[in-house]
Specification:
By secondary structure, the protein is mainly alpha-helical. The protein has one domain. The chain is built from three helices and no strands. The longest helix has 40 residues. It binds zinc ion. Zinc ion (ZN) binds next to loops.
Length: 118
Amino acid sequence: MRSHAEFRWSYWRYCGRQTSRILAIFSVGAVTFLGIWLIVGLVNPMENPTVRSEAAMTFAIIVVLAAVGLTMRHAAREARLDPGLVCPWCDRPLGYLYGIIVLSSGNCPHCGERVLEE
Ligand SMILES: [Zn+2]
């Protein structure tokens, strides 16, 4: 069984990875927006600036949604990589928001079994 400190460390690392993932997605969206906006400006300098911004924004949103879809699948798999973030009794994940329940109660939110030492 794991101690509170070990679980807290695993959970914070997990939260850090999720936060950097969100920041990376926003960066990808911003870079896509700027890139499309500049390319449209170079290719067609007479283009209406509103149309140019809307086109760049539409493209950036599509790229961000695709990135979110890909990382969500990856995040579900990654949550199981750290054995400390999987319940030893029912094998369900203890990451996501479940980690807060585990830290406050010491029990698995799925099966109710004790997962942290007293
Ligand atoms: Zn469990």
